[in-house]
TrEMBL record:
This is CMP-sialic acid transporter. Residues 22-44 are annotated as: Disordered. It comes from Oryza glaberrima (African rice). Keywords: Golgi apparatus, Membrane, Transmembrane, Transmembrane helix, Transport. Its main location: membrane. Residues 27-44 have a biased composition (Low complexity).
Length: 356
């Protein structure tokens, strides 16, 4: 899927370049120039539509399969592999992909001040904080599945919208509209509704431990996201692959520490990749590509694409879980996921408009 994204990006860039060059080089008359511009515009619109469609499909598939692959990678209810080594592998793969993208930039644009890999203290000192927050959050996502199933995880992970919005308001002083505050209330209601369990003495399916872990993950994800955006906005001209590279480098370092603290004996005695299966490898690839897909949504599509992908992914995860894990698709879950989807959409379209 990501290869198709890359190929389409290249074709989109080529089409865009031709849109600029062809009128000057091929215009033999005003009529032919107008015709050329019309054809180029139609071609560009068609390619833009294709690009958004493929980005949406890729993000939906990656998002919906993320929780499924983690649960599927278990054997007899536990992970046979080391989750810290899996986390390290994800960061290493993302770092490699960032380097490849950066190498392509150097070949096409040359090495400039904005895409150079600087090792100055001011450059790299800002990345350890978000890296360690993401590391803890990514480790927690493995352990939360002791208390929730894959569909519930897809619902509860949307709580990071609330934490991100509130932290934006507190840290970056961004104003939230009344629609966005209403969306937060709807989101809480939707998450709770989806977890209702009328056939049991327990009102909610997810135990208190699962809710606590989901809230902690949302807070970590929100703070890391806001902090990372503040770094990017501090130097907006800086190449995103350079920023990602340093973020992933520190992610690898912190995950190495986690390996030494938690799984050192197991790794030394059984090997780094002990217990890995084909599903584990797919899971690592999924985690690495998901971040890249989100970046491509922000660059080549729009935020509505992410909203649609998130909404469809919740339902798709539930449907697949019915066949793989015997998940019961209840009316409460369907209504709750619908409310969550509406709240995510309202939060997206309710952003305050800049004053003219």
């Amino acid at each position: 899927v990501m290869y198709l994204l890359y190929c389409l990006k290249e074709s989109y860039d080529v089409v865009s370049q031709k849109d600029i060059e062809s009128p000057g080089e091929r215009s033999l008359s005003s009529t032919s120039a107008t015709s050329s511009l019309s054809t180029a515009g139609a071609s560009k619109g068609k390619n833009s539509w294709k690009l958004k469609s493929i980005v949406t499909l890729a993000l939906t598939l990656l998002t919906s399969s993320q929780a499924i692959l983690i649960v599927w990678s278990k054997r007899a209810g536990k992970y046979e592999y080391s989750v810290t080594t899996a986390n390290f592998s994800v960061e290493a793969l993302k770092c490699l992909l960032s380097l490849i993208a950066l190498y392509r930039t150097w070949n096409s644009q040359g090495v400039t001040e904005d895409n150079r890999l600087s090792t100055s203290f001011d450059e790299v000192s800002v990345y350890p904080i978000p890296a360690i927050l993401y590391m803890v959050k990514n480790l927690l996502q493995y352990y939360i599945f002791a208390y929730v199933d894959a569909p519930a995880y897809q619902i509860l992970k949307n709580l990071n919208i609330i934490s991100t919005g509130v932290l934006y308001r507190i840290i970056l002083k961004k104003k939230l509209s009344e629609i966005q505050w209403a969306a937060f209330v709807l989101l809480c209601a939707g998450c709770t509704t989806a977890q209702l369990n009328p056939s049991s003495d327990h009102v909610l399916q997810t135990p208190i431990q699962g809710w606590v872990m989901a809230i902690v993950m949302a807070l970590l994800s929100g703070f890391a996201g806001v902090y990372t955006e503040a770094i990017i906005k501090k130097r907006p001209s800086r190449n995103i692959n350079v920023q990602n590279f340093w973020l992933y480098i520190f992610g690898m370092l912190f995950n190495l520490v986690a390996i030494c603290v938690q799984d050192f004996d197991a790794v030394m005695n059984k090997g780094f990749f002990h217990g890995y299966s084909f599903i584990t490898v797919l899971m690592i690839l999924n985690h690495a590509l998901s971040g890249i897909a989100v970046s491509m949504v922000m660059k080549y599509a729009d935020n509505i694409v992410k909203v649609y992908s998130t909404s469809v992914a919740m339902l798709l995860t539930a449907v697949v879980s019915v066949f793989l894990f015997g998940f019961h698709l209840s009316l409460a879950f369907f209504l709750g996921s619908t409310v969550v989807s509406v709240s995510v959409y309202l939060h997206s379209v309710g952003k305050p408009q800049p004053q003219k």
